[in-house]
Amino acid sequence: MLERIYKAQTVMDSACKAFGRRINIMEVCGTHTVSIFRNGIRSTLPKQLKLLSGPGCPVCVTDQSYIDIVLQLADRDDCLIATYGDMIRVPGKDGSLETKRTRANVKVVLSSEDALQLAKDNPDKIVVFVAVGFETTAPATAVVVEEASAQSIDNFCILSGHKLVVPAMRALVSEKNHNIDAFLCPGHVSVIIGYHAFAEIVERYGRPCVVAGFEPLQIIEGLGEICRQLSAGKAELKSVYTAAVTEQGNITAQKIMADCFEEADGFWRGLGKIEKSTLKLRDKYSQFDALKRFNMTETPVEDTSGCRCGEVLCGLIEPPECSLFKKSCTTRTPVGPCMVSSEGACAAWFKYGPERKHRQ
Amino acid sequence: MCLAIPARIVELEKDNAVVDAMGNRWRAKTTLLPEAKLGDLVLIHAGFAISLVDEEEAKETWHLLAEIADFDQTQDKVSG
Lengths: 360, 80
Description:
The structure holds 2 protein chains of 2 kinds. Chain A has helices at residues 2-19, 30-38, 58-61, 64-74, 97-100, 112-121, 138-150, 165-174, 187-193, 199-205, 216-231, 251-260, 290-293, 309-313, 337-340, 345-352, and strands spanning 23-29, 49-56, 79-83, 106-108, 126-133, 156-162, 182-185, 209-211, 237-239, 261-268, 272-281. By secondary structure, chain A is α/β, with parallel strands linked by helices. A 5-stranded antiparallel β-sheet of chain B has the order 3-2-1-4-5, covered by helices on one side. The chains are: A alpha/beta, B alpha+beta.
């Protein structure tokens, strides 16, 4: 194992020397961000190699207007809100789900199946499932929507906040002032969509895309592979997560997802409106769409808190550059979603501290 | 949020499974992975098996999870 780490580090060192300027690699996935900080990987990298935390934490990129709708629904006596724990502390205009929990109509679930079960157990309530997450999580939502439809469970609906990773990456590298040289691509999203899904970013935008798992060795080897490509002046598509990721991905999950959802334009915190970047329920399942059921629309609101999560998510600034960081915004009193979510870049910086000294 | 835990399928009836990781057992669905069989090692995300995974990869992850749990406990003791 040490030999493999040493090999990757040697490649990184020589790439940094050959490149002549800083190399910026964006880790797209929030789970990568946590693993990188928790394992102290930043401190093992050459100082010319910079990791940018991208928009791959679902909680962080969920627009404020979505949170506000969830909170409005939580105020209704006829509703039960079923949510993954990740969303519970995100502040909206009027508190958070955590503060609403005293009303006993907010339930934390570990899977979409639990949310559907909640609907079966509470026929007098309408269960609204707060369906967030990328392609890893969306198929699990699709399964229960189909189940609810097949079993005519009418008191179940979802508020789809599901998002797609590739359109966000495309939006980032389409910006004129972006500084991203390559992407470390998310392991478990790729289990579903297959590493072929990133081909467009490689071919059209000339950025290396390397899929890695979440263990430290995987991440270091992924970064090494990116550096190998950059120093050779190449951009290629590769996966070092061969234990679980295939080129085509999980076809069954893709089919179930495509049957249930269609792509739609949508709002991302920090990135704004991105074409065909979100998943909305197809018309045949519209009775399970919470927005339609309660006749609500998502209207993006301007964030006036001074929070700079948006720039953090685009890799334009690092958390300490925000004037709120560690002052009014801490993990106990989070202002923005990147501090709320344990996978957010701000929370990781806050918890694991600034970068330690580099190797050179 | 995209965490997935490797676990072994120890019971399976249609797409309802019971999975085991490091002695912890819980219910999961194999709807997204119809080829999964009893005894297979799979990655579980949000209650669903999403892919098969090999033994070496699973052991590596379990080992790391155990380390993290030990570390977090130590942290709690230090701070509490």
